[in-house]
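Troubleshooting: if your tokenizer reports a length mismatch, compare your output against this known-good record of 282 residues.
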Amino acid sequence: MPNVLTEQAVEHFHSQGYLGPVPVLDAEEVAYFRGKLESFERDHPNDLAKLKTKSHLLCPWVVEIARHPRILDVYEDLIGPDIMCYSMAFRNKNADGKTVAGWHQDTLYLPIEPILVIGALALSECTINEGCLRVIPGSHKGEILPHGEAADPDSILARGQYIDTDFDTSQAIDLELKPGEIGLFYSGIIHGSGVNIGSDRRLMLLVEMMPTHAISHRHREAAMLVRGSDRYNHHDPDRPAVVDFGPEEQAAWLAATENRGKNIFDGSTLPVSNAYGGERSP
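Known-good structure output:
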């Protein structure tokens, strides 16, 4: 029996490739974590891109989210009791009507098998107005479609990636979230998001988790054990942050993102972005 989800919810996730919204944080916790994020933004305005991957190596309050019992209970119902955190990646959008994410599939860039579950955790309103996630139900069971890339300053994605072939979007679902709710999806599902035309920023943290038996089939990477035990040693151990953006935290982030950048930008014509330890902005 599942811990917190219903059996129907678990079945829906595996058959349709997504689930949500699921409440995991209360209002006090949302305010606390949003306050921590905004403090980081004030203190380190030139390093905000680094929060787009493995932010738990830079900020101990992100480690708190990664190890949050209610969040992990949800993941345990979906992938079992032995859980590795692959990344904690902020995908924030200003209310400027510009930033988008084209339709794409993460499995092309995140080579984790057999399963990587991505959770979109809302720290603000994430409705259609704010450019919430959109998913194509069941598309995680299909093939990986051809993708293009572009150095697009308005794309929230590392390579400005987008599916560059025709496919059916008529069944797309808007995964609207209230603050403190999480929506979950298979990394292989076709998904994207529109611009933020709301009155507030969209503050969204991607919580990327996998079972300990999962493996990266290209460059070996690092991950952080957050529940259970790791009997496989498929990933090097991440060093979770102890202080906010300390020198050891920055060194650990840079070392861990180097191989991740190799996987994300494998086959790309673009230079590695500064979100993955490179020089290109954004």
